[in-house]
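User: Can you predict the 3D structure for this chain?
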Amino acid sequence: MSRNIGKRPQKLPKVTVIGEGITEQYYFSHIRSLYNFRYVLKPYYFGTTSLQEMERKISEIVGGGGIAICVFDTDVSQRDEAQRKQLDHLKRKYGQKKNVIFCDSLPSIEYWFLLHYRNTNRFFATSAEVERELRTFIGRYEKKADFLEKEKWVADMCADQKLETAIQRAKDFGENGDSYSNGYKAIEFFRR
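Assistant: Here is the predicted structure, written as structure tokens:
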């Protein structure tokens, strides 16, 4: 008796989010839960303090046949020539690859959060300045685990079509203003 061997379903590449710290880690954990997105999110892939370390993790993920979603702030690269060169190198090396998606924000991911509430791409000198502005909408916002671990702040931020609004604002501004965010690229990728 012979077996009927049909085509096996193609295994999809593993999608992994790499980020700088706990803010990104909690945000993407909550987004995954709220929208039932599928991707790998492990503490190992967060806490990346340098672009060199991020490049190593990208190489590891891509080398294993996966897709890397890279979430990081670009404020330091605006002030530090060595970091700017490293960021340029990273974007030249992986910027055109379909298996690497850069979701950088200037000055920080908090600017991405702010776009959910305010239509602005004005200059923010520091991440702390964006955080102060964000607190007018998320009063208790803090970059500490006891606040970030609660899903409610992300659920509220995305409610009432605010996520769609943020995506459109980020696209409309592009990278040409004093502040920008490519955070929307991750959301759009996860929705495919």
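The beta strands are 15-19, 67-73, 100-106, 180-181. The mean pLDDT is 91.
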